[in-house]
Design a protein that fits this description.
With 100 residues, the protein is α+β, with helices and mostly antiparallel strands. The protein has 5 helices and 4 strands. This is LSU ribosomal protein L7AE.
């Protein structure tokens, strides 16, 4: 379950253009070392989860596994299982909200 304050923050990130959505774009962002934080849903496919988490570990990108695809999709207005941000400020803000 994604808390309401996190959901609203993800929506703000999307509207401001600071959210990379979808597996291929997120993986590309991680590989190019632009991703500052990655959020993966709990119900993403196992092979996709492994691929994303392995890349995050290899490139030392912080990530969390949180909520469901449905929760994330409602928050950002797109059906997605993984998102990332390339903005340091939004990454820190999202981490802060997750850890509250």
């Amino acid at each position: 379950m994604i808390k309401e304050n996190i959901s609203k923050y993800l929506g703000l990130m999307r509207r401001s253009g600071n959210l990379v959505t979808g597996q291929e774009l997120v993986l590309s962002s991680i590989r190019s070392q632009k991703a500052k934080f990655v959020l993966v849903t709990e119900d993403i496919g196992e092979s996709s989860k492994k691929k994303i988490i392995d890349k995050c570990h290899f490139y030392e990108v912080p990530f969390t596994i949180l909520g469901t695809k449905e929760d994330l999709s409602k928050a950002i207005g797109q059906e997605r299982s993984v998102v990332a941000t390339e903005n340091n400020g939004f990454a820190k803000g999202l981490l802060k909200k997750i850890n509250e």
